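Exercise 7 asks you to align residues with tokens for two separate proteins.
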Amino acid sequence: MIRLRRIAPLAVVLALLLAACGGGVTDGGPLGPDVGDGPSTSDEPDADADPDGVEETDAATDEAPDVADDPPVETTDVTLYFLAPGGGTPARADPFLTAVEREVESTPQIAHATVEALIDGPSTDDEALLDGLSTSVPEETLLLGITIEDGVATVDLSREFESGGGSLSMFARLAQVVYSVTQFPTVDAVQFDLEGEPVTVFSGEGIVLDGPVARDDYLDLLPTVFIDSPPAGAEVEVPLQLTGKAAVFEATFQYRVTADDGTVLADGFAMSDSGMGWGDIDVTIEVEVDEPTDAVLTVWEFSAQDGSIQAERDTPIRLLP
């Protein structure tokens, strides 16, 4: 940021004299708006002077205004995948993957920026959105490079990526990277490298990676109703479009959209495209708002055994007219 310096009146006079004599003057940049204002020579006391004889000044007024503000930084919204409680059933305990929107600086290397943001972990704003949000990616991990060719992103990470222990943690960190990178249309699968060497067996848990891995390799890390879009924290226009995956009885799950004041804006049921195993969700929910409205999208399924609510999960969003 550039700030203007005050130039003493004597310097101004000398500059004018030199100019009149035909001498060259180095241009030190534009002068501040109050360059010609010298100190007061009046013997009259200042009405605003400090009674103790020490004049109070506001440091901010001693600085000339900025010539121009820094240009705004262009940003892009991406989705990061962390872990969060909720979405469990008696047969499948949480935590599971959850999608969170993050704003990153726009760059042609958007996959690189996304993985670096993932390594940084949940932000304070993310944690305020979702209680219990966490990550399995070690914060000491370094991203050494990403190359994309024929739909496969080769993600090269430092050895810290396989540090720590526990099979759930190891599978979860792989899934976090895979889901975060495959959000981009040019990437279908991920090949993991550690410090330039392709990984065939990952970590001391002995996880076999015999080639590129894709989202469907980590379905065990999803709740039975997984909302991929909109991610938590997203601003979305109505009507509300949901996409994701579900493995629910008769392909049916329930939803409710609730405003911050408790008003139910929409509720009902929707279906995935398969009643056998995992199916895709692509559903439009009719919601009307007159102004930007903070809301929570809640999804769940009814147990086929006793009709109880299970796999319940909340996604905070902001609805736009």
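Second protein for Exercise 7:
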Amino acid sequence: MNPECLETYKNLPPQHQEPPGEQEQMVPKPIEEDMEYVASGKLKGKVAVITGGDSGIGRSVAIQFAKEGADICIVCLSEEADAELTAARIEEIGRRAIQFEGDIADPAFCEEVVAGTLAAFGRIDILINNAGEQHEVNGVEDLEPEGVERIFRTNIFGFFYLTKATLPHLKPGAAIINTTSVQAYDPSPHLMAYACTKAAILNFTRSLAKELAVKKIRVNAVAPGPIWTPLIPTTFKPEELKTFGDKTLFKRPGQPVEVAPAYLFLATEADSSFVTGQVLHLNGGQAMVS
């Protein structure tokens, strides 16, 4: 990865999108792939289900998994254009991709995703619970019941439902990886509801790891810091993007391609066979107490 290229993401230009946002509209576009990456077949023959796999961190993870030999089920809410671009790249790499659009907060949709993946690929080895949404508020007085419930339904209920639907089909050696956040450890009052859901994901990860250890299924999480994804221009005011990421030690936001290798490590049984109930922190240098 060219350090000079990463430096260009300081002082991001003002922009705004309505949720859920599209990666193709972002300026500059996130770095989703390391074109010099040399794969070694770590996930050959595996099948991964990735929520939020259409863009951002999910897209980068999908591409890296495909390079390592996995077939991918992309799950998104409604971002068809982004999902098609991700699927096209996976197929260009030489792996298979399928897409599902719907709300993971609906248990019936989660069952549909699992059934469709099994019909297409015959197995599921890796579940990436990554989809999420956030909304900026001034403080607790601005929280509205409908908005709070929506964030919880997407960010944690959906994790419950898709994990429950997937679990009967996971075999020993399988991996579940949840996307939590730096917000679970150092919450912002302007992202209060979102931060609460990310803390819930942290405890869900640790609890599930204890439950599934006897089945030899590993459960871990990744806690990104400020990463340049479609979530950002849908959340913050346009003028706030100029300083996005400047509190990291690198004085810039991270890129999805810088986060994806953590998911690959946790998904690869040969690399992380003794790792479960843990969180990997990719936040640009902020020290965390796990």
